[in-house]
Amino acid sequence: MSREPRAATGRGRTRSCWPGSSWVLLFLLLLSAFCLLPTVTAAEEIIFLQDGRTIRAEKTEIIGDRVRIEKPSETIELPRASVLSIHRLSPPTASPAEVYQDMTQQMTDKVRREIQERR
Q: Alpha carbon of 112 to those of 101, 102, 115, 119: distances in Å?
């Protein structure tokens, strides 16, 4: 059998490398799946160093005179003397709606006072 290309007879469908509807559909499917993945949570701890820098970490351990800092992509060990403090980050306990619930009324009152003062 020879492997020569056949002449086009006009029957059947031809395939092209151009992104057709199947490629677009696959792209949209992958994009939507990516958007539905859970987001990476923020670091759990922040380390303040003596030189003023900060490091965000998932976990820290104090082992003797060393501090082991675990990040998603690496683990760092520093001398304990170079660490000023370690603070655990906690998620906010109140929603933005609860925090700013009185802000509109306060701003309205402030604007009214300013208008009255200018008269």
A: 19, 16, 5, 11
